[in-house]
Amino acid sequence: MAPERIVLRFSAESSEKPIIYRMIKEFDLMVNILKASINPRKEGIMVVELTGPRYAEGLEFLKQQGVSVQPLTQEVVRNEERCTHCGSCTVHCPTKALFLERPSMEVKFNGDDCVVCLMCVKVCPVRAMEVRI
Q1: What share of the chain is helix, strand, coil (3-state, %, to 5)?
Q2: Which regions of the chain are under pLDDT 50?
């Protein structure tokens, strides 16, 4: 069975619990954490590869614990031609995948750090941040 890539979103309450540990121990799942971030409000986002014979049971356990589960079927890309380097997106990026490079003050995007939260897509005034499915 090939690993499934999923995005997990934790509330402030659930981010303090050993949910991933319990999922591994109780459902015998293999978890590869690709990206993880906790914002100042203690809400968490994880992108993981998940595999194992009790995969469906593990997902149901996550949902029962208040964790939002989404398949990772999309990615965020930046349209270089549209970007005006205003920096609006950098303020909202929880993982700093979007950042201002100094001293040029150009917006740079590191897709490897992106957790597909889509905040940049929502706030970009020129719609330079796009979702690719």
Answers
A1: 25, 35, 40
A2: none
